[in-house]
Amino acid sequence: MNLTTIWTESVDRALPLPEYPRPQMVRENWMNLNGPWDYAINTSSRFPQSFDGEILVPFSPEAPLSGVERSLKAGEYLWYRRTVALPESFMGKRLLLHFGAVDQIATVWVNDRQVASHVGGYLPFTAEVTEAAEGESLSITVRVSDGTERGGHTRGKQKSKRGGIWYTPQSGIWQTVWMEAVPASYVRSLRITPRYNSSEVEIEAEVEGEEIAVAEFNGAEYPLPARIPVPDFEAWSPEHPRLYPFRVRCGEDEVRSYFAMRKLAVQKDENGVPRLFLNGEPYFHNGLLDQGYWPDGLYTAPTDEALIFDIQTAKDSGFNMLRKHIKVEPLRWYYHCDRLGMLVWQDMPCGGGHYSPLVVSAPLITGWHLSDKLHVLFGRRDEQARKEFRAELADMVQQLYNCPCIALWVIFNEGWGQFDAKKMLELVRSLDKTRLIDHASGWHDQKIGQLRSEHVYFRAYQFKPDALGRAVVLSEFGGYNHAVLSHRFSEKNYGYKSFETPAQLRTALEELYHEQIAPAKEKGLAAAVYTQISDVEDELNGLMTYDRRVVKIAPEILKTIVDMGK
To answer: Are 146 and 125 in contact (CB under 8 A)?
Structure first.
């Protein structure tokens, strides 16, 4: 069934997703390059002599909104081409070409000169194209290949043969493409760390050129790096998402940014029970699994308003956390979580080879936990793919480090391509000492870290303290199905327990939260993540339909059911 969302028709075909894509480092002098590009799909790695038609960037060719609706197969190449007229404000400046995300392997040329190559479908990359630019226009060509599960690259929940918990694969550009013009010295990146206990924020800047960077905050200037006092600050929380704006200058360059003051920890409460703490107090993370899929745009939300809708609906329904599941979103999604007040558990997308059902599925029933040093069992035989995962994990943490909403990193999920979790945990901890880490969500716990993370679907949940003294989180549960017949992707109905009517679903959720989750919280459960925020393709276990047109239980009613307090 061809589903549309309430935003499908409002997509601007000349300039979709026009908003500035990087809210924590905003410049005035920029161009959005979304919109119609020429495209071709062929089997040659050489520049095409002709193109097949137009594709609407940044929607992948598999997505209905792209106007193409054709899958890129292994062994094929997807080509993009567009000529860009440069505005007067770009003349005499250094030119930066940014890609939000391109799945999986991308090579970029400007005026037929190669300026970038990138592996990995979830993270941004940038090329300086000043020397390649000629005159008042430039021609951009992008070549993409995507083997989905072939080659061991990160692929998330995409699968060539979709079905069940695995979804339609997509390829190519799926986040905003844009350009900036900057002076000779400019700010390449910022690193923002709230120092909660000392009432300071630490701001560092990576600078290109000879000038130094200076932060402007609260009427004062601070050469960077600096620890800047934030006296009498208001702490950030989902109930009070206070953001503080500031600016950074570097010669003639200026960027706008923001930070928040908040502190995350695992500590023992007054009864000696290990729990998650926010700003020095026990805080129950009451969350939803969020896959980030859309029937019209697949990985790409049709509009900025669509991103906001999911977050606000979850908040209105009584949830204070979203677990972004096996996907990295555009930076605007995290900005909306920052400003609206929504904690985020950020998953690393999975990769590797074929996943053995005995390794990734049997533990749900058996409770088995295997050592992830056994690379062959986990589909991790390929050393180069393991190196890629490690590099992308580090890149993800660094790219999203400044987002106040992110409370926890999830490195591996249910053994999908899991390997050497202890080393991966040490890597993440070396990059970010301010957040919590779940090294193995679901199973194949390596008995490390501060959390024991469990998935429970086919039995009643009963809390048990962790023998190692770690905080216990229920990182997936529920998955209750209710099919809304005219709002389903297919005739299939994948899920864990089905209900015919909204009233039956409501009663089942009341029993689930009141008889299982609430008692577990009192005993020591530190967080709970219900599956899931919306239906996704064959999965009809969302609290909303896939097209977001039907909220199965009114938010004001759901809020009374799931309210766990802080």
So the answer is: no
Q: Does domain 8-182 have CATH number 3.40.50.150?
A: no
Rounded to an integer, the average pLDDT of 479-493 is 92
Q: Count other Cβ atoms within 10 Å, centred on residue 79.
A: 23
* Residue in 34, 135, 449, 121 with CA at minimum distance from that of residue 299: 121
Closest CA to 539 of 502, 500, 490: 490
Burial label for 199, CB within 10 Å (0-12, 13-18, 19+), is middle
Q: Please report how the helices 555-562 and 304-316 are oriented relative to each other, as an axis angle in degrees rounded to 10.
A: 50
Strand duo 480-481 + 497-498: pairing: parallel
CA dist 20 and 25 (Å) reads 10
Query: Whole-model pTM above 0.90?
Result: yes
By the 8 A CB rule, do 264 and 278 touch? yes
The Cα 27–Cα 230 span in angstroms is 24
Domain ranges in the chain are 8-182, 186-251, 264-562
Residues 319, 325, 327, CA angle at the centre, nearest 5°?
A: 130
Q: Long-range CB contacts (< 8 A, 24+ apart) of 202-209?
A: 202/226, 202/227, 202/228, 203/228, 203/246, 203/248, 203/259, 205/248, 205/250, 207/250, 209/183, 209/184, 209/185, 209/250, 209/251
Report how far residue 381's alpha carbon sits from residue 417's, in angstroms, rounded to the nearest whole number: 10
User: How many percent of the chain have pLDDT more than 70?
Assistant: 100
DSSP, residue by residue, 330-381 = -HHHHHHHHHHT-EEEEEPPP--SPPPHHHHTTHHHH-----TT-TTTTT--
Is it the case that residue 566 has pLDDT exceeding 80?
Answer: no
Six token digits for residue 17? 């997703």
The continuous run of DSSP H or E covering 560 comes out as helix 555-562
Cβ-Cβ contacts under 8 Å for 271 (sequence gap 6 or more): none
User: How far is the C-alpha of 59 from the C-alpha of 101, rounded, in Å?
Assistant: 11
Q: Which residues are CB-contacts of 522 (< 8 A; sequence separation ≥ 6)? A: none
Task: Note the pLDDT of residue 491.
Answer: 86
What pLDDT, on the 0 to 100 scale, is given for residue 1?
64
Share the mean pLDDT of the chain: 96
**Burial of 183 per CB tally in 10 Å (0-12, 13-18, 19+):** middle
CB-based burial label for 210 (10 Å; 0-12, 13-18, 19+): exposed
Check whether domain 264-562 has CATH 3.20.20.80, yes or no: yes
Radius of gyration of the chain (CA): 23
Phi, psi of 354 (to 5 degrees): -65, 135
